[in-house]
Amino acid sequence: MKNIFVSLALLVLTVNTSAQEVVQDSISTKTLDEVLVKSVRVSADSPITHSNVDKEELEKRNLGQDLPILLNYLPSVVTTSDAGAGVGYTGIRVRGVSAQSTNITINGIPYNDAESLGTFWVDLPDFSSSVESLQLQRGVGTSTNGSGAFGASVNILTDAVSDEASGEISNAFGSYNTRKHNIKYSTGLLNNHFEIAGRLSQINSDGYIDRAESDLKSYFLQGTYVDDNTLIKALAFGGHEVTYQAWYGFDPATIEAIGENPNIDDNRTFNLGGIKFDEAGNFEEFYDNQVDNYKQDHYQLHWNERWDGNWSTNVGLNYTYGRGFFEEYVDDYLYSNVYFEQDAQFSFLGIDPITVNGQNISSQDYVRRRWLDNDFYVANANVNYKDSKLNLTTGLSYSTYDGDHFGEVIWAQYASDSEIRDRYYDGNSNKYDFSVFAKATYRLNDKLSLYGDLQMRNVFYDTSGTNSDGVLFEIDEDYSFFNPKAGLSYNLDDKNNLYFSYARANREASRSDFEGNPDIKPEQLNDFELGWRHTNSKFRFNANAYYMSYNEQLVLTGALDDTGTPIRDNAGESFRLGLELEAAVQLTEKFSIQPNITVSSNKNKEAFASIDGELVNLGKTNISFSPELVAANAVIFQPTKNIQLSFLSKYVGEQFMGNTDSKRSKLDEYFVNDFNVTYEIKTNKIFKSILLSGLVNNVFGEEYVSNGYYYTYDDTWTVPGETTTIEGTGYYPQATTNFLLGATFKF
């Protein structure tokens, strides 16, 4: 492990702490495990809007699809898959906010990439199999570690300590040659104190989209020491993904320009990735290694300690090592005559033109690899004091990121004077993030509690060298953010709870934001939440109204960069106003339903666009990728304790892919239904139990699109002296009816 000695030094020099649910008697191992995330999670009656998901819920549909897909039926959630079937690159939006503005922590450690701010679940395949529980907070939520949340935060707790020895073998097969295999084990507590547990997984899929194959491997290893007041955990987990690129989507204009069928209804699975042409522009074939190849390893160390009946602490350290590349065939005809980009030119690579058989050659086909090589260190420190009235948590977090970005040419049509693996760009980035917070819940009486949360965060971001376009890329930014939060919670009785909260959050821009606009500004959010929770034995109902007021919100423009990353830009003043309703109803002993619905209005208060060569004020417009209606429901039938049948429905209303309300940029609404069945066989022989699972996705074969992109460019050459704005769109079609079947043997 690279730089392991630095991690050990941090262990010696750092004092870190976390909140803990203290009981007056002994503390169970489960409670000690939950300490890892108490500093970033909230309790059931807190004034923070949230949903909890446990291991049992994930297990029912955990047949190889990424974690975002398993969260698809939570309130205000919209998910998508580049490959179309939930394996490979997947995405999640909450309240219309992109994944770059959603904070993810694993055992309290930030998982978002420090520089891009994104989360790439493909780097941790089958991670759902090692999740004990998670909490999705909508809105700003509570103070957390890493970059601030602007739409949601997902706080994940990995597998808890197991008192008993166990083992598990799981296999799943399904459509598009999808298959998943994993093996898990736990020694249980040895000598009542020590446990070793682990998992190995492999997932493969051909994908719904042409050539969108995934070859995914992952591991999870955990060593634990526990006693009445102490929990020490050492974890190592990671993954290696090789996926054929499917991030180009279905772009009708480009597909038509290269002479292919541009009708998405007739050719939903077309993948532009790796396409090759001859010099006359005739299609030849697809490059067979147009892949994304990336490895990521995480090492965590946590020490949770209960000192007495009131005080507890937690120490958490992390080192993440990521490295990999995406390989790309740069076709001269495609880049020069369709994209009108310079990538195929010798000058782009920094080499001189050559003469071949008396002909001057200044461009060529070649194969390049664009590399990332990065190190990420985190140290968290939290302390908790709790008595009958006060629950106080203070803490700090420090992280440092060092990332290299460089490009290599591994094959070229003409050798010229270049060498294999010549770097045509080379840059480095450093980012330092320090935050300190204090938050408390004070119970005035049996009915009323007050909540306060103050966070200071300082971010330094520095880059040097050149970017992937070979352009000097130097950023030197230093941000100081103050993020206050306050709220109150009132219990009308033992069944009804009312809450109100206010939270401010500030967030810096990402690397790609700076590449698109060196003058990009940080965004600020003021979030107001008002809710009512009702709970009884057969009926649970949550109603939440929110108003999210933004200044310089970094909204998706609809366009993509050349790696498929969504481009963002400041939107001035904007807001999101919505109502979320969520229920769980036990209709009979065997039937229950779990509906939720979000109705919202998401607006830029004033939008400007360049149209036909003139800057136009469009007034109030819809924020991109923000449907006004999102709804879901689960109808659950459980005829016996061991059998459960679930019919799952999801509706997403129409949405715009840009911020100009252009009809061309509109994505149609869609309504999709899945069917899930689980049957657990209890046995006293070789296995303790056998869990059989089945999942039919998109039961009625809906041909829908859950994501896409929208772009414009100015045509100044068709009519000399005139500028005409041309609009273009691309789409990510999702799979029609498909299935997954699995069996898990537990012993």
Q: What would a concise description of this structure say?
A:
The protein is mainly beta and 747 residues long. 7% of the residues lie in helices and 55% in strands.
Structure description:
With 747 residues, the protein is mainly beta. The chain has a single domain, classed as TonB-dependent receptor, beta-barrel domain (Maltoporin, Chain A), CATH 2.40.170.20. Helices cover 7% and strands 55% of the residues. The protein is built from 8 helices and 41 strands. The protein has a 24-stranded antiparallel sheet that branches. The longest helix is centred in the first third of the chain and has 10 residues, at 4-13. The radius of gyration is 26 Å and the shape is globular. The model is unreliable at 1-27 (pLDDT under 50).
Sequence-ordered SSE layout with sheet pairings:
Elements: H1 4-13, H2 29-38, E1 50-54, H3 55-61, H4 67-70, E2 77-81, E3 90-94, E4 102-106, E5 109-110, E6 131-138, E7 152-158, E8 166-174, E9 178-186, E10 194-205, E11 214-226, E12 230-244, H5 252-257, E13 275-277, E14 283-286, E15 291-306, E16 311-330, H6 332-337, H7 346-349, E17 354-356, E18 359-361, E19 366-386, E20 390-412, E21 422-443, E22 448-465, E23 476-491, E24 496-507, H8 511-516, E25 523-535, E26 539-551, E27 554-560, E28 566-570, E29 573-586, E30 591-593, E31 596-611, E32 614-622, E33 629-640, E34 643-652, E35 655-656, E36 666-667, E37 670-682, E38 689-697, E39 705-715, E40 724-733, E41 738-746
Parallel strand pairs: 4-7
Antiparallel strand pairs: 1-6, 2-3, 4-5, 6-7, 8-9, 8-41, 9-10, 10-11, 11-12, 12-15, 13-14, 15-16, 16-19, 17-18, 19-20, 20-21, 21-22, 22-23, 23-24, 24-25, 25-26, 26-29, 27-28, 29-30, 29-31, 30-33, 31-32, 31-33, 33-34, 34-37, 35-36, 37-38, 38-41, 39-40
